[in-house]
Amino acid sequence: MSTFINAYSPTNLRFLLEGLLVTVEVSIISIVLSYIIGLILGTIRYMKIKYVSAIVGVIIDIIRNLPLLLIIFFTYFGFPELGIHASPFWAAISALVIFESAMLAEIVRGGIQAVPDGQMEGARSNGMTYLQAMRYVIMPQAMHMMMPALLSQFVSLVKDTSLATIIILPELLYHAQIIYSQNTTYMIPMYLIIAAMYFVVCFALSLFAQRLRKKLGKEA
């Protein structure tokens, strides 16, 4: 018991919270950017724009079949070779956005395709342009159907931030490793508390997504 009490000292807890803050910051920025980019890419794939959709599809398939860890290494070690110098914070965000955008693009495309064709035909017959029909008729229904998959991917993104510890990003897991490297008896207490912290963040994200889904369902 004394091991847990010492491991959870105010100093250590404060240090862990600093790492959690970095994890949350990386997660929020990555979720927002990857969602925007994924929405655009998924819509382009669905619209089947000549040549463009095919090229985007090839790029998405390549990225989706690469390990995220490899992309993290590329953004941190490869970008400087291209003249792009990024801190571990922005290298991690870049890698997560690249990977998650590709994953989300397929979710978006699948969600749009799940909307019955008659919805588009009905919107067009009422005088809407193609883009208006997509904006006001198709996308609201697609968003409602794809929300569970989006939530799952966002939760995965939060957990994937732990991979950035390999490039010395001072996130939650990295801070925990620093603590138990000074006293190996703290290893189990540290893993237990970071598991609890990840659960709280992911559960909060789940609750937010459920409320958003209900709101979208009322508007649809």
TrEMBL record:
Compartments in which it is found: Cell membrane
PROSITE patterns assigned: ABC_TM1 (PS50928)
GO annotation, cellular component aspect: ATP-binding cassette (ABC) transporter complex
Membrane-spanning intervals of the chain: 20-44, 51-77, 89-112, 133-155, 188-209
Protein's membrane topology: Multi-pass membrane protein
Record-annotated ABC transmembrane type-1 domain positions: 20-209
InterPro entries per record: AA_ABC_transptr_permease_3TM, ArtM/GltK/GlnP/TcyL/YhdX-like, MetI-like, MetI-like_sf
Keywords: Amino-acid transport, Cell membrane, Membrane, Transmembrane, Transmembrane helix, Transport
Main localization, broad class: membrane
GO biological process, one term: amino acid transport
One Pfam match: BPD_transp_1
GO molecular function annotations of the record: transmembrane transporter activity
Family: Belongs to the binding-protein-dependent transport system permease family.
Protein's UniProt name: Amino acid ABC transporter permease
Origin species: Lactobacillus mulieris
Taxonomy of the source species: Bacteria, Bacillati, Bacillota, Bacilli, Lactobacillales
